Amino acid sequence: MSATIDQLVNREYQYGFSTDIEAETLPPGLSEETVRFISAKKQEPEWLLEWRLKAYRRWLTMKEPHWPNVTYEPIDYQASSYYSAPKSIKGVGSLDEVDPKLLETYAKLGISLNEQKRMNGVAVDAVFDSVSVGTSFREELAKEGIIFCSFGEAVREHGDLVRQYLGTVIPYSDNFFAALNSAVFSDGSFCYIPKGVKCPMELSTYFRINQATTGQFERTLIVADEGSYVSYLEGCTAPKRDTNQLHAAVVEIIALDSATVKYSTVQNWYAGDENGLGGIYNFVTKRGKAMKNAKISWTQVETGSAITWKYPSVILQGDNSVGEFYSVAVASKMQQADTGTKMIHIGRNTKSNIVSKGISAMKGQNSYRGKVHILPKAEGARNYTQCDSMLVGNECGAHTFPYIEVQNNSAILEHEASTSKIGEDQIFYLKQRGLDAEQAVSMIVSGFCKEVFKELPMEFALEAQQLLGITLEGSVG
Amino acid sequence: MLEIRDLHAAVDGTPILKGISLTVNAGEVHAVMGPNGSGKSTLAQVLAGHPAYEITGGEILYHGENLAEMDAEVRAQQGVFLAFQYPVEIPGVSNAYFLRAAYNAKRKAKGLDEVDPMEFLDLVEEQLKLVDMDPAMLHRSVNAGFSGGEKKRNEILQMAVLTPTLAILDETDSGLDIDALRIVANGVNALKRPDNAAIVVTHYQRLLNYIVPDYVHVLAGGRIVKSGGKELALELEARGYDWLLEAVA
């Protein structure tokens, strides 16, 4: 029976192909010259180059963190290439002149960049290795005053906005990987929603690593002005390769007074094989700052990567602000995931809600690491944390590291945790009702993840379904 | 419909069933009784295809086909239904969704179109009345937080929806109060048709006051030690199992 489960969780990685495209790729290595090269290549203003260099110099003094519950061979930061771009990309932002090979790649990934074949009104910024391929629906969004473009373009066209907010939530000195990203980030997405505007469609960035030895260091900056709303989606895939590749991204969100930002991720980087060969090392810093009455909601479905190190967090700065974190993390094969969130309550009557679902299978190791910090002035703060683990088979592991720090006596915190195992009896029960083993496991897992999946926008819920081979519950029931 | 010939089965290498032969025809209700540890539940699990039980001898023919060679889900799709003694909880999966998935799996196996949620809801509402179940139960997670009686009624609801050809009820009466017992029994009786059959596994006679069997078999030590009509159950109620066990010893 467990052999059936293993087969199910050990399915072939669908997105493992690579695109043969002529690229301009920097030779491996990292130095101040690399940083200057990237900045020059992107025709950046002096202030940004200075910022990158400060980050680089700071990075040199920092040590890679080893507190996560993961083990891996030391990373040689000189062995990675820090810039790779298909030669055919001119960086104009429009999709009209994009190399058909690239469009084909995205089509194969199920991402349509063709506005005529609109993905139920989702605007996409497609990032291929180090650069943005193009962004769809730009004109339509511009009518509302919404800016949605590649990071590089934002620096050129909306430099003041970028300068005003860049690094205000995650300073370049924040941590080792954020510092590295700040020094060498190549592209990413930028989004600005003006005051009072409800963004009429989902915005999304689709990240694709293609080159063999390239690291990907993208940066996303989302600014939601007062009273605005945006729902943002992020997807990621990479070819199947025997070597480990580095991915160190930064996502910063600023939700000004009464703004709401919903950020959803379906992370499906290549996870490596069942012997632990290959796969992406995913070291990501994601954080949002919520001002008065603002709300930031993170939803993530983490199925890929050999190593995941990721804690999407919210600084609840303003009074009555709300932070949410909904997560499904799957660690199968030899995957190791150390993921969770930080909720930093600063303002009064701030609320945070954490729902974490960890699934471990085969030899996967899954750790939830979360911090809830109530600062002295956070009168009336509330947190609810629910942390559930599911084990499939006998060789995997689930670990929980909750940290709670309370400096105000009026705070109310709740923490619930559970661990369960997919049992032979559950599977037999469903098989006895006519469902095959695959449907049975899917049903059990989707039931387990239900609270998180219902937070995902429809388009993503379908992708998550595909990913986990899961049938989502229909409207009835 | 079902022909069991000299069936031997073991769990973890320990023999439990030691030569059972039993023929069940369409339209019949068979009661399988016996003391604890006699192999009643094992017989039910083996017929349903539980992977922990290994068939070590004999054969089971279902409509002339070798049942032992079918996967559990294929048996289910072909009309074998087991009402569990201990129904399993599936948190986060609504009863309605689960029932529809099971119903559609069976339809699909027959080459029929799947029914959509609205159609299915109409269909299931009829069956709810049969087991006197609140429609709100459809929207709760499968068996999660259900009382013992609710779980058993839910089993009969599934049986009503899936309309099995061969229903096996494994100690469905255990843990039921008299009202619940009556509801469950009424459900089973209402589902009786000339073209289906039921095997009712029970320790006590009282369920058989409501579900009247055509045949009663007494299992002891993994063998059928006595078979008879419905009056055998009454005799067992009056005299217990010991006289039978002594007779075979």
Fold and architecture overview:
The complex is a heterodimer of chains A (477) and B (249). Chain A is built from 11 helices and 23 strands. Chain A has helices spanning 2-9, 32-41, 46-60, 100-108, 138-142, 151-157, 159-165, 176-184, 424-432, 437-453, 458-468, and strands at residues 23-25, 84-86, 122-128, 131-135, 147-150, 189-193, 202-208, 219-224, 229-237, 244-247, 250-255, 260-267, 279-290, 295-302, 307-310, 313-316, 322-331, 336-345, 351-361, 365-374, 382-392, 397-406, 412-421. In chain A, the strands form 3 sheets. In chain A, strands 5, 6, 8, 10, 11, 13, 15, 16, 18, 20 and 22 form an 11-stranded mixed sheet that branches. A 10-stranded mixed sheet of chain A has the order 4-3-7-9-12-14-17-19-21-23. A two-stranded antiparallel sheet of chain A has the order 1-2. In chain A, a hairpin with a 2-residue loop joins strand 3 (122-128) and strand 4. The longest helix of chain A is centred in the last third of the chain and has 17 residues, at 437-453. The model of chain A is unreliable at 1-5 and 470-477 (pLDDT under 50). Chain B has 249 residues and is of the alpha/beta class. Chain B has one domain: P-loop containing nucleotide triphosphate hydrolases (Rossmann fold). In chain B, strands 6-9-10-3-11-12 form a 6-stranded mixed sheet, with helices on both faces. In chain B, strand 4 and strand 5 form a beta hairpin. Chain B is globular and about 55 Å long. The chains are: A alpha/beta (477), B alpha/beta (249). Chain A binds chain B through residues 1, 420, 423-426, 428-437, 439, 443-444, 446-451, 471, 473-477, and chain B through 48-52, 71-73, 75-77, 81-82, 84, 87-88, 90-98, 100-102, 105-106, 109, 117-118, 120-121, 138-139, 141-142, 158, 162.
